[in-house]
Amino acid sequence: MKRMSLVLLTAALGCWNPFAPQKELPPTSGQELSLEAPESTLEALDYAMNHKDIEWYDRVLDEDYWFREPNEYDDELDKGWGKEEDVEMVGKVFKYFDVFEYKLLGGRKYREFGSGTDLSKMGEGDVALTPEDPGDHPGEVWVVFSRPVDMYMYNYADDKGYKVNQLFEIKLRKGKDGLWRVVRWTDYPWNP
Predict the structure, then answer these.
(1) Has residue 84 been placed in a domain?
(2) Is 92 contained in some domain?
(3) Which of the chain's ends, N or C, has fewer CB atoms near its CB within 10 Å?
């Protein structure tokens, strides 16, 4: 019995390495990532990007998600796609790059009131849309973050790297389940 206890103790201690780095916890100090508030959804997006976690990336996107990259000179040359294509493309990017660093910097935050919403709740800097606005979302109030982003991506095998600094406009809406998700993402490559 003593011999068995000694073997188990030795095996357990043999697996423990006091010099090993601690496991990396999500940015919420070990708490479960959440989509319960717009800011926590941005934290979950940050986690997904920096950990190349395509499951969390998929989770932060709304079913009606649309990505848009406008053309600076001609609106007819805008690029855009939905959630399925975006998740597939970002998954390939995560797999290709060995290093993927993402940092959404501070910037403007405001609410966007769709037509038919209670405009008495508007605050300074908020925007009211009308049915004539192409981006109208009737009966819904979205939270908009317009912020610069810094990204660094590198692939060791191909010795290729990219630095990105541009403006992202990320719009979130609260779903019927009470969770906030990214419904629109506009990527301005020229920093308007």
Answers:
(1) yes
(2) yes
(3) N
